[in-house]
Amino acid sequence: MAPAGARSSRKATGQGGIAQGKWQLLKVIEDIREPLGLKGTSISLLRAMISFLRVDQVDAMRDDGHICFASNASLAKRAHVSIQTVERHIAKLVSLGLLTRRSSGNGKRWARRDRQGSIVLATGLSLLPLAERYPEFLRMAQNHQDHQNELGRLRDMCSAALSNLKAHLMPANWDEGLLSKARNLLRRQPNKQALSDLLVEITVEISKISSAEPDDLRATAPEIEGHKETSKTQYVKEETSFQIEVGQEEMERAYPRLCAELRFAKNQEDCRRLMDDLAGYLNLGNTWFSIKDLGPALSFMILGYLLERTETISNHRGYAFKLSQDLASKSLDWRTLLKKPRSK
Fold it and tell me: What is the pTM of this model?
C-alpha cells in the first residue's frame, strides 16, 4: 500500500515532472550492465535503493518519489553486503550519472514528515537520473542487444566454417594451431573483431583446399540425403529467394510435420511466431535470423526439412547454417529440399 499522500503519480515529461515505473527503470539498467561496466553488487545495491521508495514510480514532483534516504547500514543489510561495499558502489553509481546526491549540511540522509505522516522534505540519494535518462538507456539496451546478436551470428559462422574445414581434411592434416586458437576463442567471450579475424582465417584455409581439389568438388563433398547437386547451369533462369513459389500441396507432401504444427495458426503473424518457437526448439540460435533473411519460402523449407530429419541430425544449427550458405551461394538448388527423406 502507498503511504498517505502517495496517490497515483502524475505522469509528465521534461524537467517539471518525470514519472517512470521504478522496476522498469531497474530492468533497463540490468540490460546494459555490461556496457556500463557495472558488477552484480552495484545492481543489487540499486535494487535495494529502489525497494526503499514507497511509490511505484520515480516522480520528480515529490521527494518521496525519487529520494532514497535509507542509511548505508540499512542498504548494506538489504543488499547483503558490507557498509564499505555500499559506499564504494554508491560512488560508482554516482560517477556514472545513475544517482545524484542531495546532501544535508551534516552529510546525513533524513526525511521530514507532516502531521499525516507524509514526507514533505528529504535528503539522500536521488534516483531521478534513471527516469531522466531512460530513453538514452533504452537505446543503449537495443544497441547492446544488436551487438550480442551479431556476436552470436559470427560465433555460429565460425563454428560452422570450422566444421566445414575439418570435413575437408583427414585428422592427420588438421592445422592444430588454428584449431586450438578457434577452440580457445569460442570458449570465451571474444569481441567482434576477433571473431571476424578467425572467420577470415578459416575461410582462407577452406579456399586453399578448394583450389587444390578437382573442379567437380561437389562430387566429393558431403551429400544431403544422398542426392548429388546437379550443375549450377542446369537452371538457366535466375531467381531470387523471394521469388520462389511452391504450391501448398507440394509443401504439405514434403513437410508434413511443419504443416501440422502450423495448421491452427490464426494469421501470418501467428504462423511466424510458431516458426520462431520451432526454431528455438531446434536450437538454431542466431542462424535462424540469417535463414529468415533468405525469404519466407526458403525459411519455411529449411525449417520443414530439418523437422522431417530431426532424428538423424546431430547438430541442427550447423546443418541449418550449411544449408542456408549453400542456398545463398546457389551451390544447392532449393528444389532439393522438396525431396522426401530416404526410408530406413
Answer: 0.53
